[in-house]
Amino acid sequence: MHFKSITIKDIAKALGLSISTVSKALRNSYEISEETKKMVGDYAHSHNYRPNPLAQGLRKGTSKTIGVVVAVFDDNFFSKVIDGIESSSNEHGYSVIFTQSRESYDKEKQNVQTLADRSLDGLLISLSSGTKDLSYLKELSNIGLPIVLFDRISEEINTHKVVCNNYKGGYEATEHLIKNGCKNIAHITSNITLSYSKEREDGYLNALKYYSFPIEESNIIYCNQEDDIYDQANNAIDKLLNKKNPPDAIFCGSDVLSTTVFRILKKKNIRIPEEIAIVGFSNSASAEAYDPSFTTVEQPTFEMGQKATELLIQLMEAKRKPLKYDTIVLDPVLHVRKSSQKLEIV
Asked: How far is CA 179 from CA 5, 344, 345, in A?
């Protein structure tokens, strides 16, 4: 059954009033008598009238709508970021339209264009793993569309950005494995083109250097998030296990890889942490319920969504461009659990 909501024009026709009178009555204007306001209000309520924020916005030169592009909805990280975006946007009276790129540049570009065609006030975007050409975003930014990047960013766009301190997360995860007796630490991570992948890898490498560990290029394996993650992670683990000197620990560099690698190790009957210790970048609420409980680097996802939305609203409501743009860096938290503890911690 198709539901068609009534409009101000419908109310005016039904009550024999002008559209202007109905509009003013619904806005409680002093120009309209209380009797007419009540008549209009009662009819609107009984016929489930709802104001159209887009139409109202167009009259005011604003749609009160924010567009959002994330990689995927069914991901612990992005689902919590979305919660933060919704919380902040609702607080400020904005509606939100969410879309997912599915890690495809073409899909991302198509989604952004579709959103832009809906007269958005602004755009929040976390770039897909396949995005290399940002000219389409630059064009929209140059013609005045406020844009804020979060998590997966690019320095090519001069705007506000909100990210996690990925270097710190990578360093602390690796340092933790070292201090727990691990001697040969591998790193399975996402596309190096993603901004956070390089930062987390740098943290991993510098922790190894600081503690005078040898760096083996064969211990670092990249998984393309545009393709099947399970197959790639499975192949990565097979490569590591077939090495002459296989690793005794793995640091996983993304949310989806972390949980996937954990599952694969269990499926291969690899004892965790006795044979291979593991630390992941993951915001899974069930990490503590894993067997063994999963040591993870947790990102401040909800706060990231809130901060990005607040910065975007500032841009949208400002009368002129800011003199400078900010990059907000939020610290992650390492939650130590049994999956990484080869030695007893005193």
From this structure: 63, 11, 9
